[in-house]
Amino acid sequence: MELTYANEEKPLGTAGSVKNAEEALKDDAFLVISGDALTDFDLTELIRFHKEKGALVTVCLTRVPNPLEFGITIVDEEGKVERFLEKPTWGQVFSDTVNTGIYVMEPEVFDYVDPDVPVDWSGDVFPQLMKEGKPVYGYVAEGYWEDVGTHESYVKAQADVLEGKVDVDIDGFEISPGVWVAEGAEVHPDAVLRGPLYIGDYAKVEAGAEIREHTVVGSNVVVKSGAFMHKSVVHDNVYVGPHSNLRGCVVGKNTDIMRAARIEDGAVIGDECLIGEESIVQGNVRVYPFKTIEAGAFVNTSVIWESRGQAHLFGARGVSGILNVEITPELAVRLAGAYATTLKKGSTVTTARDHSRGARALKRAVISALQASAIDVRDLENVPLPVARQQTARGSAGGIMIRTTPGVPDSVDIMFFDGQGADLSQGSQRKLDRVFARQEYRRAFPGEIGDLHFPASVFDSYTGSLLRNVDITGIAESGLKVVVDASNGSAGLVLPSLLGKLGVDSLTINPGLDESRPTETADMRRSGLVRLGEIVASSGAAFGVRFDPVGERLSLVDEKGRIIEDDRALLVMLDLIASERRSGRVALPVTTTRIAEQVAAYHGTQVEWTTTSPDDLTRVGGEEGTIFGGDGKGGFIVPEFSSVYDGTAAFVRLIGLVARTQLTLSQIDARIPRAHVLKRDLATPWAVKGLVMRRVVEAAGDRFVDTTDGVRVVETDGRWVMVLPDPAEAVTHLWAEGPDDASAQALLDEWAAVVDSAGR
User: Fold this and answer.
1) Alpha carbon distances (Å) from 548 to 309, 317, 655
2) For the segment 370-391, what is each residue's pLDDT rounded down to a tens digit?
3) 676-759: CATH homologous superfamily?
4) For labeling, which of 160, 479, 589, 735 is most exposed (least CB within 10 Å)?
5) Is pLDDT above 80 for 114?
6) Which architecture characterizes domain 151-299 according to CATH?
7) CA-to-CA distance for 253 and 697, rounded, in angstroms?
């Protein structure tokens, strides 16, 4: 075989790197194969398909259980590619057919790749080819394919080779079923071998050693008496000392593992390390190359800087977990260090918390870590969440807010903001996740330690900006009376000065902070709303509002004391704002009732549907022409002031609207048609989530399919169902809407059966 190398001096992307080798590829069709995968696909059949179709590009595809880390590809019945989606979120998964990074291409494809700049096949070149109608085909290959870019997939690929799941020639002799021994290896007859396993050339296994299934022993490895190995991959020239114990780990070349050392499942030891006698390296720990673990050491954090990776770092509310069990000060320090590493030295980060003691303790740890990573800190202390977001957007590179998890008093959320005060995007979350998992944290030199200061007049700044940007005309003259429930939370810190400046007659209840109640359960919230309704009705107020404990969300009670449910409150606010503005765009998640579309259209506005992710709603909320946004769960966006959920801004906007329209909330509610949206959650194993979404698309047939988030199937009569995999749990969410509850229920039952059948 003749090999020609094209060196990539700087990163050029998946297409730019191939363009770099154009001189060697310009004469005929060529194969592009990513080097980090193990496969036994029939490439001859792939090339035959390419030539038969007369394709410019043929993408080799395969089906996988979890498509999150790959590019999803949809093809039609002829095999022509209809759509690509690179590394989707679960909400974007509509198939389990993924791009393997193997392509057959004609030299003309180079006309679409600029030289010496980063260019990506799936992100740049293929979309342009499809836009121009060029023949881009997808070939679904049969056989084995495993991306080996992670520790877990690497170990799995080794086991699959030993199990015969992939067609690979194993260099050695099968001395008993599944036990492969290479040339020159010495295995003592009294060693215990339980295959499938592999022992490399010139390795030596002493009497009393036990090597069990899915273990790979490299060249020149010495396994001493009494050593135990199970599901471990040991590279060349490693010494495995007597009575040592290796389970599910990977050990780099030229490493010495001394007597009675133990390395647990998921640990990775780099090249040329020394693991001392009777030391213990716990599961998922990384020991970087050239490190020494002292004899008797108990290593539960990685040996580079700190800590181990976590499978799902970000959830729906940032990084969440039980205080002092899952979320400890040590973890907070590592997270803050990872976040700081994603920012430039000398950047400013704004920090804030709710009124709980746990949040206060964790925030101090976060501040220390930020400063130690060359970050200046503006600490707001205890403020409402919208205030923290607004202050972050004033000159900070980002922000961190620590609060009690809504409805879960013993848990906390560590929330990370971008420079606009919005939640980190999916891409930024992945970046932070990678830094945290690799534990490559930046450390500042002594002269670079960051400053800490406490900005003054934060609440005056917030309320002043709010009153300048939100229309409050007519409020002072209206004589409106409102009842405001601060829920003993941080919203009560802003309300006194705000209500005074508005000139509205108000009664504030539960204004004081209660450290023992930093959040509330659903029952507590409900009883609070009932009590608020009683006060509104008896006092003759125009309406009542109730803030959540961090001032982010808002609940409404009408003038009769009746609770307006959150999904109806969204329609009421939409009706009021759209009727006043008469043009513009409204941002709503795709799970919202289509009655919202009718309300918006009636007043000359239009709906832009977003995914269910808050950062997507925030993105549209910040675009020019957006007049309102909401999630139907008490979260409202007032774009003239902010692109994030803000209960206080929504409250001020509502007072102005009611004052100017002279309509009551019950009158507005009564003129909006009733919605019939039902929801159901179904348990779905992670391994079949991609299959479920493909089955849903297939079952949709000729019906209209919307893949804004998950898959939404629209019936010809306007009824719709939406199927969305949960990003953090083994659950699939379903919504259905119809003209009445019975028809919505029937639709829900029909599609629940589709999801269930795929999950079995």
Assistant:
1) 33, 15, 18
2) 999 999 999 999 999 999 999 9
3) Alpha-D-phosphohexomutase, C-terminal domain (3.30.310.50)
4) 479
5) yes
6) 3 Solenoid (2.160)
7) 47
